[in-house]
Design a protein that fits this description.
The complex is a heterodimer of chains A (113) and B (113).
Chain A (H helix, E strand, L loop, with lengths): L3 E4 L2 E5 L4 E7 L4 E9 L6 E7 L4 E4 L2 E6 L4 E6 L8 E9 L6 E3 L3 E6 L1
Parallel strand pairs in A: 2-11
Antiparallel strand pairs in A: 1-3, 3-8, 4-5, 4-9, 6-7, 7-8, 9-10, 9-11
Chain B lengths: L2 E5 L2 E4 L5 E8 L5 E7 L5 E9 L2 E4 L5 E7 L2 E6 L8 E8 L8 E2 L3 E5 L1
Parallel strand pairs in B: 2-11
Antiparallel strand pairs in B: 1-3, 3-8, 4-5, 4-9, 5-6, 7-8, 9-10, 9-11
The chains are: A mainly beta (113), B mainly beta (113).
Chain lengths: 113, 113
């Protein structure tokens, strides 16, 4: 069954600290994996996209990793800011279907001052 | 630049009433269009996608329907709303090809009472 599981479900950290969010998937065949940031009551916004051959990709303070062998991805946030408070969603595109995007339930991050 | 609009932003409707949510995209032509629903604590669920005018594919059976009367207009409808239709509805578009990023609209919060 094609699934995307994220952990933890929620996370609270202090401003300036680092954190890592996890994403495990069983989607096959795999096309690509994206991390989205979704502010409360808003649409998701893409942070990074990773294909099968990519191991690491950075976007400012966000660094995503992908291990295609173990089907795991992580999103590392460095020096967190209050504006990082949001839900982070892992999405895997299934290779055999153009429109098959499998969404995780997200990790809700709260950054405290 | 491309933009995507959704309206209304929020909606409260009684059970059994009709529904019409509208999504329009600007700045691109012949996009793929998608309707998603996000229930509290759950991942985004793909409801419909469209590759062109009048071409609608449904992912899950339900009392909702979609139409694409124009290239950049996507409408989500229902003849009679159910309580279970409550949720956050997101419209998204992507470039043809399937591997590209999905761009999400601001969403519509629907509460069925």
């Amino acid at each position: 069954k094609n699934q995307v599981e994220q952990s933890p479900q929620s996370l609270i950290i202090l401003e300036g600290k680092n954190c890592t969010l996890q994403c495990n998937y069983t989607v096959s065949p795999f096309s690509n994996l994206r991390w989205y940031k979704q502010d409360t009551g808003r649409g998701p916004v893409s942070l990074t996209i990773m294909t099968f051959s990519e191991n690491t990709k950075s976007n400012g303070r966000y660094t995503a990793t992908l291990d295609a062998d173990t089907k795991q991805s992580s999103l590392h946030i460095t020096a967190s800011q209050l504006s990082d408070s949001a839900s982070y969603i892992c999405v895997v595109r299934k290779g055999s279907g153009t429109y098959k995007y499998i969404f995780g339930t997200g990790t809700r991050l709260k950054v405290l001052a | 630049s491309q933009t995507i609009h959704q309206w209304p932003a929020t909606l409260v409707q009684p059970v059994g009433s009709p529904l019409s949510l509208e999504c329009t995209v600007e700045g691109t032509s012949n996009p793929n269009l998608y309707w998603y629903r996000q229930a509290a604590g759950r991942g985004l669920q793909l409801l419909f996608y469209s590759v062109g005018i009048g071409q609608i594919s449904s992912e899950v059976p339900q009392n909702l329907s979609a139409s694409r009367p124009q290239d950049r207009q996507f409408i989500l409808s229902s003849k009679k709303l159910l309580l279970s239709d409550s949720g956050f509805y997101l419209c998204a578009w992507s470039v043809k090809g399937g591997g590209y990023e999905q761009y999400f609209g601001p969403g519509t919060r629907l509460t069925v009472t």
